[in-house]
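Researcher: Batch entry, complex prediction.
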Amino acid sequence: MAAAAARHSTLDFMLGATADCNAVLKALQPVFQEQGMTETVHNWEDHGYLATYIQKNGSFANLRIYPHGLVLVDLQSYNDQTKGKEETDRLLDKVEERMKELFHGNIKRVKRLPAILRGGAIDRYWPTADGRLVEYDIDEVVYDEDSPFQNIKILHSKQFGNILILSGDVNLAESDLAYTQAIMGSGKENYAGKEVLILGGGDGGILYEIVKLKPKMVTMVEIDQMVIDGCKKYMRKTCGDVLDNLKGECYQVLIEDCIPVLKRYAKEGRMFDYVINDLTAVPISTSPEEDSTWEFLRLILDLSMKVLKQDGKYFTQILQKDSWRKLMLE
Amino acid sequence: MAAAAARHSTLDFMLGATADCNAVLKALQPVFQEQGMTETVHNWEDHGYLATYIQKNGSFANLRIYPHGLVLVDLQSYNDQTKGKEETDRLLDKVEERMKELFHGNIKRVKRLPAILRGGAIDRYWPTADGRLVEYDIDEVVYDEDSPFQNIKILHSKQFGNILILSGDVNLAESDLAYTQAIMGSGKENYAGKEVLILGGGDGGILYEIVKLKPKMVTMVEIDQMVIDGCKKYMRKTCGDVLDNLKGECYQVLIEDCIPVLKRYAKEGRMFDYVINDLTAVPISTSPEEDSTWEFLRLILDLSMKVLKQDGKYFTQILQKDSWRKLMLE
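Model: Structure tokens for the complex:
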């Protein structure tokens, strides 16, 4: 947390009634001016005030007063010391105090979010597939490479272990064994002696778990050799030693686009007991059919059905893994 | 998402080298000015530029250029329409485009976070115990009351079901059965015929799960009747019908501070097979001993040991529930 970055802090007040914008400005002005900050005020006719406060050290604050009763404070400062954090907190404490004096009990809600660290060496913010903001306790960039297909990052989190992030989407953490188990049928399937086809799955988690269950043969088709290279080195809790070789007694890994492979198998009449689709949510393919994500998913499903035995089973994620991670617990 | 709130968007650029602040400003100025925004520029001697752009409709933007090679854009607008989101996105797209033209490949990282919604009717941001920012997909405030001890909120999330939040700390979601099972010993304990004491646990989850296992007697000591009232109505997936009555065939719920109860039991020689400490991370107590959180925890532990049989077991959370929810999966 002491790493160099811009620290952006926010403090929001929802008032119980419309605001006398000028009174709020007058009450808070001294708090900023006591810090030696210089003020610039913009006054809209119908939209309230924006006051900007600038400090000599490069920090600045915005005070935005909306007349319907919303007061938003932003404070941005660049520093690599804990001291900056304390100064910011003290200033925001004073603003909060002054606002409470001014409005007595008539503030509906006060909200101070954890400061957002911007431009630091390590990016802590990895939104979910449904666009929610989530901060991780990342303390190390373990791997960061561009393959011909995607950006591959492996970041270490104190809480979740190493996390695989493909082109910005959180794919799997070392702590996500439950995801792997879920997509395998939650322990209710008997893989012994079975023929299994895994589409994608470059982190090796599914392959590692299924190989333990004595299948006849598992074929995994992963497009990106570099995902395998990164994971076999840094996601060993997920994949064990299964990616150390692309061939084992009861498994093989093909480094190929799965669409032509599925077509070939369909043509040859090669059939499987299980097809497990572990492709990324935003598909990567070298095939021209990929007009849209949904068409791609339908194509994968159609082709999978062609290589599935009469009583075979098809497993896929119905949600992003990040959601799975939680829904698993229901 | 279409509810009335201020939408605060950010767009950050980490450059590959130090920045010519003036060149960046000159390149981006037109993007804002084309929107009819008026500019105010502050130029520090050693700390770069801050440009503020103001639009007639009450929106504004900050462009902060740090000379060591960091460019941060903030855009704040108040609206209750999707249109505002699209306009913001278009403006940020243009900024990104212009920056990429200016620096060609020499931008190390571009980061655009999901917009933060500020001052809306429903608060979506509930930080973790370790201070990380997390946004939930809250769509309804189900319950929001102040008890004599704390603020009690139950919020509905599409993903997690109803979530119990005590004084701002996420306590338990209806999807968190795994947490309840973990604190009960992960299914490895035999509660049949046993005497069990639960400290706290007002959501009723532990009580409900243990009662199913035919214990001799479970005593739950919860300080806050209002937590029970809220949970028995809105967290039924967690507590079933167990909180409908404070007494059942094999359980009783005492609405009391657990410290005097523990002291009384210790004095009486009342002994238990299991003590399960499910108190909130920040303790609530009416007892004077509570000088600090750690002293409180030690006191609870000391007293618990006094009421525990020789071969009895003490379970507690070693981490906040929010962490548990994930660590459970390891």
